[in-house]
Amino acid sequence: MVGGFSECSLIQNAIKTKFSAYRIIIPEEAGLAVVKGAVYFGNLANAISRRVSRYTYGIQSWPEYTPGIDPPSKKINVNGSMRCKDVFFPVVHRGEQIPVSFRKSQVFQYLKPNQSEMECAIYVSDQENPRFVDDGSCRQLGILKVPLPRGFGSVEIEETIIFGETDIEFVALQIGSGKVLET
Question: Rounded to two decimals, what is the model's pTM?
């Protein structure tokens, strides 16, 4: 337990009682542990060179439908092409070591010529290899709505996830125009 409330014996006892099956660790000066960590990180930013991912991060994909492997409920016809909708495309797997400022990109084409925008979303899961973004283990972490130009045949969108020092950045680049959206 760390943080200001961790020094309160009433809260310590309540946590120890509620979670009696676990070993509760309370460091000395628990109230200052977070502050000391932030100061240490601020002064020595390279103190953390890599992390172990707590979750599997990914984006939504609609690959070609494979009969016998993909469930029929996920089969969708897009302009005469049979696709499997809502597929979880992993970028980083749970338990994987990722360096600071690690970035991973994937290029997608929008599938419907009459679309005015493409939704690019990042998903997170507790499972190491989720199959679909609408599985119970997955949740949407963020979304970007990329406007699509009219009258330009195929438009490609490069989706990039950047794992920074203390945050995750999601960027969508419209390749033809160079337009960038991020969250």
Answer: 0.72
